[in-house]
Amino acid sequence: MNNWEWLVSAIPAGQAEAVSMAYLARLFGISKRELRKEIEDARKAGNLICSCDKGYFMPQTEPEIRDYARRVKARIRTGALCLAPFLREIRRAEGIRT
What we know:
The chain has 4 helices and 2 strands; from the N terminus they run H-H-H-E-E-H. It is mainly alpha-helical. A two-stranded antiparallel ribbon has the order 1-2.
């Protein structure tokens, strides 16, 4: 099981100090895709890794945590809105077949 200390220790505290995905991928010698997966897994394990336009950072303040959570919620809402027509079409198609 991975404890992600290697990743968390390389990510600076505070949004102003954020580091890019390219930098972290080079630092660890992994692809950006692998890094994204590691960050996702670390977040699922409870590590508060935030991101912004500049890159990744560990939150230093409550507003940084709130801002990141707000942005994630907005992406989820947008994703749900984009998914809705597809789900309607699937239900419609299933209704036609039965």
